[in-house]
Amino acid sequence: MLEEITQIKEVTFEIKKTFEDRRIDRYLAARLPDYSRTFIQKLVKEGAVVVNGRSVKSSYDIQKGDTISVRLPVLEESKIVPENIPLNIVYEDDYLMLINKPYDMVVHPAGGHPSGTLVNALAFHCQNLSQVNGPLKAGIVHRLDRDTSGIMLSIKSDAVHSHIAMQFEKRYVKKEYLAVVEGEFDLDSDEINLPIGRHKNEPQKMAIRRDIGKEAVSVYEVLERFRGYTLVKIMPKTGRTHQIRVHMRSIGHPVVADFMYSSSESCYLSDLLQKEREPGEVPIIERQALHAHKIEFFHPIQNKRMEFQVDVPDDISLLIKTLREVRPQRN
What we know:
The chain is built from seven helices and 15 strands. With 331 residues, it is α+β, with helices and mostly antiparallel strands.
């Protein structure tokens, strides 16, 4: 893989604090959000990741004082390689398609990530994709974070792309997300209107920024309460980067297992039982418990509003089932 890329850049991380149960592949996937964990594991296997000057395995647990160097391939703008990656197609016609995106899939090549993205899969599946946003974002009119699963709209025609992009801009597109978050809400529903901008000290993160932030509005509705956790439906009115994750954290209810904005990168049964972790225990979920559940938009060719939704995947479903069993709402 690396030998096929003409340019390489090197990124270095210094570990300045102790992490609990932090494999190097998980750490790097979190620090490099434009790269999937699978891609990171390939880099490790090929020796492109070294710790203190030595090659390691993906299972290596990082230690305080480690220096991690990563050699990353740089992708040229014009090169998109179609890849035979299975797609869960919810709907398709000559103008657009709806995909149920799995978690740990990057939407489009960025930051040097040349493969394994949704765009690579779309390029294999479709003869034509809209080019409004350039070849690296062919067919992409909106995006989901790498570890957010759920419904995504992809466009084949430039004219249809421009029409639907205008719908996003004018907030005619309606989206609903489902999330399991930490804590118990006092209100059954509310609107969060807090501006979001780049974090002052950590550029890979976003934050509430009243100085330079852009308008960001989210409406939430409580669906089910548990002891210490809540299942919520969230309807963003704007589309800022990490908007739901930042808004939920800002009101004291970060999304469960959100490495960037919560206290942990995974959730175990022992966590819910408030017990010591069992040796070899497998996590219930090891990515943010956030799912794009529904989208509604106007189809400019069929001249009608269309609505699509997809159920939560197995890991979020298991988390909800486990919460019902071990942390039911107080009577």
